[in-house]
Amino acid sequence: MTRQTTLARLMRAMIKYDGGDVPRIQHFVKVHDFARTIGVAEGLTDEELFVLEAAAILHDVGIHAAEAKYGNCTGRYQEELGPAEARKVLAETGGFDEAQTERICWLIAHHHTYTGVVSKDHRILLEADFLVNSFEDQVSKEGIIAFRENVFRSESAISMLNDMWGLSSLQENHNEQNN
Protein backbone atom coordinates (compact mmCIF):
# COMPACT_ATOMS: atom_id res chain seq x y z
CA MET A 1 0.00 0.00 0.00
CA THR A 2 1.42 3.42 -0.93
CA ARG A 3 1.52 6.30 1.53
CA GLN A 4 -1.05 8.18 -0.52
CA THR A 5 -3.36 5.16 -0.40
CA THR A 6 -2.84 4.94 3.37
CA LEU A 7 -3.70 8.64 3.78
CA ALA A 8 -6.78 8.25 1.56
CA ARG A 9 -7.92 5.31 3.72
CA LEU A 10 -7.30 7.39 6.85
CA MET A 11 -9.30 10.28 5.40
CA ARG A 12 -12.21 7.92 4.67
CA ALA A 13 -11.98 6.42 8.18
CA MET A 14 -12.10 9.89 9.75
CA ILE A 15 -15.06 10.91 7.58
CA LYS A 16 -16.85 7.80 8.83
CA TYR A 17 -15.76 8.52 12.43
CA ASP A 18 -17.22 12.04 12.23
CA GLY A 19 -20.18 10.86 10.12
CA GLY A 20 -23.10 13.30 10.20
CA ASP A 21 -20.88 16.13 11.49
CA VAL A 22 -20.22 17.93 8.23
CA PRO A 23 -18.58 21.07 9.71
CA ARG A 24 -15.96 18.98 11.54
CA ILE A 25 -15.30 16.89 8.44
CA GLN A 26 -14.89 20.03 6.34
CA HIS A 27 -12.56 21.42 9.02
CA PHE A 28 -10.07 18.54 9.08
CA VAL A 29 -10.07 18.24 5.28
CA LYS A 30 -9.08 21.91 5.00
CA VAL A 31 -6.47 21.63 7.78
CA HIS A 32 -4.99 18.62 5.98
CA ASP A 33 -4.75 20.51 2.70
CA PHE A 34 -3.06 23.52 4.30
CA ALA A 35 -0.68 21.30 6.29
CA ARG A 36 0.32 19.39 3.16
CA THR A 37 0.85 22.60 1.18
CA ILE A 38 2.95 24.19 3.93
CA GLY A 39 4.88 20.97 4.55
CA VAL A 40 5.82 20.64 0.88
CA ALA A 41 6.75 24.34 0.65
CA GLU A 42 8.88 24.11 3.80
CA GLY A 43 10.78 21.07 2.51
CA LEU A 44 9.65 18.34 4.89
CA THR A 45 10.96 14.88 4.09
CA ASP A 46 8.53 12.29 2.74
CA GLU A 47 8.41 10.67 6.19
CA GLU A 48 7.77 13.97 7.99
CA LEU A 49 5.08 14.92 5.48
CA PHE A 50 3.35 11.53 5.81
CA VAL A 51 3.17 11.84 9.59
CA LEU A 52 2.09 15.50 9.42
CA GLU A 53 -0.70 14.73 6.97
CA ALA A 54 -2.00 11.91 9.16
CA ALA A 55 -1.88 14.16 12.25
CA ALA A 56 -3.72 16.92 10.36
CA ILE A 57 -6.49 14.52 9.35
CA LEU A 58 -6.80 13.25 12.94
CA HIS A 59 -5.98 16.42 14.91
CA ASP A 60 -9.53 16.96 16.28
CA VAL A 61 -10.34 13.26 16.81
CA GLY A 62 -10.71 13.86 20.56
CA ILE A 63 -13.67 16.23 20.23
CA HIS A 64 -16.44 13.62 20.53
CA ALA A 65 -14.74 11.91 23.50
CA ALA A 66 -14.24 15.30 25.20
CA GLU A 67 -17.89 16.24 24.71
CA ALA A 68 -19.00 12.87 26.08
CA LYS A 69 -16.69 12.96 29.10
CA TYR A 70 -16.60 16.67 29.98
CA GLY A 71 -19.59 18.19 28.20
CA ASN A 72 -17.32 20.45 26.12
CA CYS A 73 -14.41 20.14 23.76
CA THR A 74 -11.82 22.66 24.90
CA GLY A 75 -8.35 22.35 23.43
CA ARG A 76 -7.02 20.88 26.67
CA TYR A 77 -9.59 18.08 26.61
CA GLN A 78 -8.96 17.41 22.92
CA GLU A 79 -5.25 17.07 23.64
CA GLU A 80 -5.94 14.76 26.58
CA LEU A 81 -8.39 12.41 24.87
CA GLY A 82 -7.34 12.68 21.23
CA PRO A 83 -4.37 10.28 21.22
CA ALA A 84 -6.39 7.29 22.46
CA GLU A 85 -9.06 7.92 19.83
CA ALA A 86 -6.38 8.40 17.15
CA ARG A 87 -4.79 5.05 18.03
CA LYS A 88 -8.13 3.33 17.40
CA VAL A 89 -8.56 4.96 13.98
CA LEU A 90 -4.91 4.34 13.02
CA ALA A 91 -5.12 0.67 14.03
CA GLU A 92 -8.33 0.25 12.03
CA THR A 93 -6.79 1.94 8.99
CA GLY A 94 -3.40 0.21 9.08
CA GLY A 95 -0.25 1.36 7.33
CA PHE A 96 1.39 3.17 10.27
CA ASP A 97 4.31 1.79 12.25
CA GLU A 98 4.82 2.33 15.97
CA ALA A 99 7.12 5.35 15.61
CA GLN A 100 4.73 7.04 13.19
CA THR A 101 1.77 6.34 15.46
CA GLU A 102 3.62 7.78 18.46
CA ARG A 103 4.53 10.96 16.60
CA ILE A 104 1.00 11.41 15.23
CA CYS A 105 -0.40 11.00 18.75
CA TRP A 106 2.17 13.43 20.17
CA LEU A 107 1.15 16.04 17.60
CA ILE A 108 -2.53 15.53 18.43
CA ALA A 109 -1.71 15.85 22.14
CA HIS A 110 -0.06 19.23 21.43
CA HIS A 111 -2.14 20.75 18.63
CA HIS A 112 -3.44 23.47 20.97
CA THR A 113 -0.06 24.04 22.65
CA TYR A 114 1.53 27.21 21.33
CA THR A 115 4.55 27.45 23.63
CA GLY A 116 7.78 25.54 23.31
CA VAL A 117 7.21 24.80 19.63
CA VAL A 118 10.53 23.55 18.30
CA SER A 119 9.67 21.07 15.54
CA LYS A 120 8.56 21.92 12.02
CA ASP A 121 5.70 19.42 12.01
CA HIS A 122 4.22 20.81 15.25
CA ARG A 123 4.49 24.41 14.05
CA ILE A 124 3.00 23.59 10.64
CA LEU A 125 0.04 21.80 12.23
CA LEU A 126 -0.63 24.87 14.42
CA GLU A 127 -0.36 27.17 11.39
CA ALA A 128 -2.62 25.03 9.20
CA ASP A 129 -5.25 24.76 11.93
CA PHE A 130 -5.21 28.53 12.43
CA LEU A 131 -5.48 29.22 8.70
CA VAL A 132 -8.80 27.36 8.82
CA ASN A 133 -9.91 28.60 12.26
CA SER A 134 -9.26 32.24 11.38
CA PHE A 135 -12.07 31.97 8.83
CA GLU A 136 -14.38 29.48 10.57
CA ASP A 137 -14.23 31.33 13.89
CA GLN A 138 -14.34 34.79 12.28
CA VAL A 139 -11.20 35.92 14.10
CA SER A 140 -10.70 39.69 14.11
CA LYS A 141 -7.97 41.23 11.98
CA GLU A 142 -6.14 42.19 15.18
CA GLY A 143 -6.39 38.60 16.43
CA ILE A 144 -5.09 37.25 13.14
CA ILE A 145 -2.12 39.63 13.18
CA ALA A 146 -1.34 38.81 16.82
CA PHE A 147 -1.43 35.07 16.13
CA ARG A 148 0.72 35.50 13.04
CA GLU A 149 3.32 37.49 14.97
CA ASN A 150 3.36 35.17 18.00
CA VAL A 151 2.95 31.69 16.50
CA PHE A 152 3.59 31.61 12.75
CA ARG A 153 7.19 30.98 11.65
CA SER A 154 6.90 29.15 8.33
CA GLU A 155 7.47 31.59 5.49
CA SER A 156 4.87 29.88 3.30
CA ALA A 157 2.23 29.90 6.07
CA ILE A 158 2.83 33.59 6.80
CA SER A 159 2.52 34.36 3.10
CA MET A 160 -0.73 32.37 2.79
CA LEU A 161 -2.22 34.05 5.87
CA ASN A 162 -1.26 37.48 4.54
CA ASP A 163 -2.69 36.69 1.11
CA MET A 164 -5.91 35.18 2.53
CA TRP A 165 -6.67 38.22 4.65
CA GLY A 166 -5.07 40.94 2.52
CA LEU A 167 -2.51 41.74 5.21
CA SER A 168 0.82 43.42 4.79
CA SER A 169 3.95 41.46 5.57
CA LEU A 170 5.39 41.41 9.08
CA GLN A 171 8.17 43.79 8.02
CA GLU A 172 5.73 46.24 6.38
CA ASN A 173 3.55 46.10 9.49
CA HIS A 174 6.58 46.75 11.71
CA ASN A 175 7.68 49.68 9.52
CA GLU A 176 4.16 51.18 9.57
CA GLN A 177 4.07 51.04 13.37
CA ASN A 178 7.47 52.77 13.66
CA ASN A 179 6.59 55.68 11.30
Automatic annotation (TrEMBL):
Coiled coil residues, start to end: none
InterPro entries documented for this protein: HD/PDEase_dom (IPR003607), HD_domain (IPR006674)
CDD domains the UniProt entry points to: HDc (cd00077)
Stored SUPFAM superfamilies: HD-domain/PDEase-like
Residues of the HD domain: 24-115
Domain of life of the native organism: Bacteria
Pfam families for the chain: HD
Protein name per UniProt: HD domain-containing protein
Native source species: Parabacteroides absconsus
Upper classification of the organism: Bacteria, Pseudomonadati, Bacteroidota, Bacteroidia, Bacteroidales
